[in-house]
Amino acid sequence: MTPAELSTLNAQVLWAAFGIAAAFGALVQRTGFCTMGAVSDAVAIGDWTRLRQWALAAAVATLGFAALSAAGVLRPPQTLYASTRWLWLSALAGGAVFGFGMVLSSGCVSKTLVRVGGGSLKSLVVTLVTGITAFATLKGLTAVWRVGTVDRVAVDLGANADAATLLARASGMPFATAALLAGAVLGGALLLFAVATRDARRPLNVVGGAGVGVLVLAMWWLTGDVGHLAEHPQTLEESWLATNSTRAEGLSFVAPTAFALDWLMFFSDAGKRLTVGIVSVAGVILGSAAMALARRSFRWEGFANTPDLGHHLVGGALMGIGGVTALGCSIGQGVTGASTLSLTSLLAAAAMVAGAAGGVKYQMWRLERDAG
Prior knowledge:
The chain has one domain. It is 69% helix and 2% strand. It contains 15 helices and four strands. The chain has helices at 3-31, 35-45, 49-70, 88-104, 109-117, 121-139, 141-148, 163-171, 175-194, 203-226, 254-265, 276-294, 306-325, 332-339, 343-371, and strands at 85-86, 155-156, 228-229, 239-240. The strands form two sheets. Strands 1-2 form a two-stranded antiparallel ribbon. The chain has a two-stranded antiparallel sheet with strand order 3-4. The model has no long low-confidence stretch (mean pLDDT 95). It is found in: Cell inner membrane. It is a multi-pass membrane protein.
């Protein structure tokens, strides 16, 4: 492959990633897909419809990733989530902190970006705070704390810490068979839960959940297959183009928000380059804006009062710190990471739900206190 061909392929991957993210932003804007809202509905009013929508997204992504793995297109050890270390404490602590933060912020990072596209200035503030604290937790002060505390507590499994790899290793069955079996068990269980009620099977609900799952798969296919080079012409090593991790990446928004701010602030630095994550942040915002304008739902929105500002600032900081510690957000770990059957991702997703449930109960307590 010539340098010109390599540059063209890199650009194609970036444009396609932007298109997938724009479709995600438009879809979420139209269907109301929201992890925080899903947990809030379940805890506050006992309505599990939107939680089933989230489960449907995870089911579609998990079943699809299992098929990709079985076909040899993309396997868990080739992804961002690959590690022989099961970072269980990082997943628990980071996930719980992120989950609590997304309630204070009125939505997770992906939903916050969608609201920015819809005209929410307070979501723009949350995005900036999340990006700054996420970058600090990647490379700054809180990164030192993270590496020196929770990241030191892990279990080395001696093989990639995902269910399919461990099943293949323990049983001796071919990886393709193990991937299909493990993916079918988890994905099938999620699917049954997702469509168990009539409300959950409403067209808009199904389109939202299944659509998010399909877009997660599209990003996996794009970075894991289209952008995959068995031998990079310059390094002569296996490579995945246009990703920050140099591995295959799916939809995720905490670290990419930090990288997007870094790219904007140091644009003139020749060492800075556009990546799938960075263009995904822009894609979600612009896709959401296009849908909001088309439906005439675009509205400028600010903070109601000082306490509202304070809660959103704290929430944004918690999402940045917690999201990086947990290696992803409610989409990045709850759908994208979970689709790889990563043990860290599955635990982080569960911790996010628990943290969000705690955040909802805290908000309910505040309302009762203020009313009294």
